[in-house]
Every structure is written in C-alpha cells, then in structure tokens.
C-alpha cells in the first residue's frame, strides 16, 4: 500500500531545495514551503471555504440594491480573502511546529524521512521563526479581516495540533481522535466567518456558533462531516505503514489494535448518510443532495466493510484509502451545486422572473431587515473585522 501513495508534497519540495546551493533563495523558499505541508494546507483551506460559500445568507443580502439601501454588508470577497489567507497561514504554522517537534521520529519513517528538518535543509531557528510568523500573521488576519471568533478558532487549531495531537502520538492511540477534532475546526471557521457578516446582535461567539434560531447547525454538521472523514481516510493509510509507526514509537491503532482500527473506520463511514440528510433538513442544501450524495456515501461504506472484513489485507486498505480521497471533494462539490435556492435564483434571473417574498423564509426575514436597519441608527452593526 505504501508504494501506491501519491508523492508527498513536502518531500518533493525538500528534494527541490536540496538541488540548489545552500545560500540560494530558491532553496530557502522551497524548504520553508515544505514546512507548511502544502497539500494538507490546501485541504484545510478548502474545508473552510465550502461552508462559507454554503452559508444561507438572508434574502435581502442576495440583492445588492437592498444591501446598499440598508447600508449593510453582504458576503464579501475581501472577507473570503482574509479567511483563506489566515487559515492557510495558521495551518502552515501548525504543520511547521509539528515537524519541529518530531524530527527524530520523522527520520525513522519512509513518508517523512525526507522532510527539510530531517535533512537539515533549514536551521531550527529558521523553522521556529517561520512557524511563529505564520501563526501570528494568520491569527491577526483572521481577527482584523474576519472576526474574533474565527481568529480564536484558527489559533486554537494551532495549539490543538501542535500542543496536543503531536505529543499524544507517542503516548496513546487517542491522538487520532484529537487530530480529527483539528480537522473539524476549519469548517466552523468558514461558517462563523459568513455568520459574522449577517449577525444582527453583537456578533460574539455565542451568536456565530450557538445561535438560538438554530442557524449554526449547518456549521456543526460540516464540522462533524470533516471530523468523521478523518477515520476512513487515516485508518487504511496508517495500516499500510503500521510497522514503521511501531518502529518509530508512535502509538496508532493500526498496530496497537488492528481489529479496532478497521472497526473504527467502518463505524465512522456510516455517519455520512445521516450527516448529508442533516444538511438538507437544516436548509443548507436542497433535498436532492440526499439523493445524489447517497451513492458516494455507500461506495465509502462498501470499501469500509471490506477493510473491516479483511482487516486491511487483500487490497482492502488501498480500496478504502482511495475511496476516501475521492469521497470528500465529491461530497463538497455536490453540496455546492445543490445549495438551497441556488438553481431557483439562477432560473429566475435567466428568465427575468421576480423573486417571491417568501422564497428564502417567513416573517423572520422582515424582522431581520428591520433590526439591521434600526441598528444603523443606534450604533455599530455586526462584528466583521
């Protein structure tokens, strides 16, 4: 299985750095970028962007004329820029700190032995400065460009990944669950970023993450989806290199308890069907998403059943790993393509038909507009910094 994995981006960048003179700018930049684990960082950013795009914006925000008349912001490309930039920098910081913590164990594993700190392509001081710089700038970008709640989540992800997950790898197999929590936070960041732009009260974390009207449910469903996905993805991946994990002293279920390793992968693969149904019920996607996502989810379940029956043997680990690789982007694209009300708005825009007053909700939307308009007379509006 290990030989069938795609080339590691960090290793390829480290190889590129090693081919250049020690004092060259190309070598330094490639080595620093390698610290960020680029492919993982891209996945983290995308997992924040999708919930941001799927956030059910109130009806009047979809109309630039109304937004201008009420002097209230709509979802902003500038906010999205700060969200993606800040999230990418926070992810880069967490990954760099991870590499700083375990160069000795990285040196014992095929997947990680070519990382820049193992090969001494960078000094420890340079890696620390890179991690601290990315973490600081990323958190500030989220604070000033998005909102304090998202900034806190971004910083918390750095602390959880580098301060809890990484050292726990040597102690207990529970590290995988902590790592899954790390994967579930970026979707909450994207959701809270969009919620902050349409907040009607003080825009605190309570309103953005625990709204009394249940509008926060979509963000938590996406967080649960990313949390659950880690297990059918990582369990077969780790099984393929279980002997290396054992030799490096990293306590993963793949060698500590192989039978439980496969059961956990199967257990979490089963939750995607109800999670996708939940997104429909929460008004994030159309009900058609429940239909189109089911074949993809059942494919993942089928491969997880094989992985459980054969405990990774007979190609079952490889089958589940690649199913998980394709599963997440397909689910995300399907959700984006079936956002609640998207095609109705597209059709009416093309056909020139006016939008009905109750298309996006009931009288609550009218109250939303009245509250927001009144806010302009009494003080600052939603927190979106």
Automatic annotation (TrEMBL):
GO molecular function, one term: protoheme IX farnesyltransferase activity
Transmembrane stretches, start-end: 40-61, 81-101, 122-144, 150-168, 175-196, 270-290, 319-337
Presence of the UniProt keyword Mitochondrion in the record: yes
Main location: mitochondrion
Membrane topology, from the record: Multi-pass membrane protein
Pfam families: UbiA (PF01040)
EC number(s) on file: 2.5.1.-
Acetylation listed as a keyword: no
EC top class, as a word: transferase
UniProt xrefs under InterPro entries: Protohaem_IX_farnesylTrfase, Protohaem_IX_farnesylTrfase_mt, UbiA_prenyltransferase, UbiA_prenylTrfase_CS, UbiA_sf
Keywords: Heme biosynthesis, Membrane, Mitochondrion, Transferase, Transit peptide, Transmembrane, Transmembrane helix
Superkingdom to which the source organism belongs: Eukaryota
One BP annotation, GO: heme A biosynthetic process
Sequence similarity: Belongs to the ubiA prenyltransferase family.
HAMAP family: CyoE_CtaB
Main function: Converts protoheme IX and farnesyl diphosphate to heme O.
Protein name: Protoheme IX farnesyltransferase, mitochondrial
């Amino acid at each position: 299985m290990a030989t069938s994995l795609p080339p590691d981006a960090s290793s390829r960048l480290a190889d590129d750095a090693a081919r250049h003179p020690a004092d060259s700018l190309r070598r330094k930049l490639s080595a620093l970028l390698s610290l960020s684990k680029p492919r993982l960082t891209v996945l983290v950013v995308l997992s924040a962007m999708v919930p941001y795009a799927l956030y059910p914006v109130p009806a009047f925000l979809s109309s630039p004329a109304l937004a201008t008349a009420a002097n209230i912001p709509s979802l902003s490309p500038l906010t999205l820029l700060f969200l993606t930039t800040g999230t990418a920098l926070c992810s880069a910081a967490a990954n760099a700190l991870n590499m700083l913590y375990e160069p000795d164990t990285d040196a014992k594993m095929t997947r990680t032995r070519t990382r820049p700190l193992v090969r001494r392509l960078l000094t420890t001081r340079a890696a620390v400065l890179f991690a601290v710089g990315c973490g600081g700038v990323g958190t500030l970008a989220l604070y000033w460009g998005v909102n304090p709640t998202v900034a806190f989540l971004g910083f918390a992800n750095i602390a959880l990944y580098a301060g809890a997950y990484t050292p726990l790898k040597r102690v207990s197999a529970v590290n995988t669950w902590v790592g899954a929590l790390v994967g579930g936070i970026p979707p909450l960041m994207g959701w809270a970023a969009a919620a902050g732009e349409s907040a009607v009260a003080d825009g605190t974390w309570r309103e953005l993450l625990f709204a009394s009207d249940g509008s926060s449910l979509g963000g938590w469903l996406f967080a649960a989806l990313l949390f659950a996905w880690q297990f059918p993805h990582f369990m077969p991946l780790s099984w393929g290199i279980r002997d290396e994990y054992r030799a490096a002293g990293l306590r993963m279920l793949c060698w500590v308890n192989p039978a439980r390793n496969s059961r956990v992968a199967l257990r979490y693969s089963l939750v995607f069907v109800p999670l996708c149904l939940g997104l429909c019920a929460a008004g994030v996607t159309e009900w058609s998403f429940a239909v189109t996502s089911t074949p993809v989810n059942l494919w993942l379940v089928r491969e997880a059943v094989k992985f459980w029956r054969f405990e990774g043997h007979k190609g079952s680990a490889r089958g589940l790993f690649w199913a998980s690789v394709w599963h997440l982007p397909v689910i995300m694209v399907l959700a984006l393509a079936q956002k609640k009300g998207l095609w109705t708005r597209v059709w009416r825009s093309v056909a020139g038909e006016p939008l009905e007053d109750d298309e996006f909700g009931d009288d609550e939307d009218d109250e939303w507009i009245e509250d927001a308009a009144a806010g302009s007379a009494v003080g600052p509006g939603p927190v979106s910094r």
